[in-house]
Predict the structure.
Amino acid sequence: MQLYELLRDDQAVSQVIGVVLMVAITVLLAATAASFFLGLSNDQQTSAPRVAIAFDYDASNDAPPEDSLKITHDSGDTVDAERVDIVVSEAAVPGDVVDRRYTWQEMADGSPEDVAAGMSVTVNRSTLKDPTSTNAYSDLALDNAGVQVIWSDPGSEQTFVLGDWQ
């Protein structure tokens, strides 16, 4: 009779299992917290600066076309001008198409160190200089072109699109 009662009595087992589970959860939480606090997590991603970019397109009805696109830093973080690029693709120029990456400093007056709210550059026939000469293009059509404003992270090789116009 005593043996039968011993096999059916499981009160002590449930208490031991409860203690083991509590210890395991505590160790797991401590290890997770330590990895985040000590910076052992691999999820350390760089975030792009928060910048609002505005595009103002002025189509030319003249022949030859002299389209222009004004790119303005409307609001947000101030960024290093060396890290901001303007990528122009499929811009029609006489006998060719422009697919080129320019720095903000190349297109801006005075080569600013930072790009802050209110600053702008203009993509037009004189800022998209012919790479084979120092002359400006004689005309420019942007109606089928695409322009992106790209920021390069200084701590890695990542790039982020701040603004896109097509």
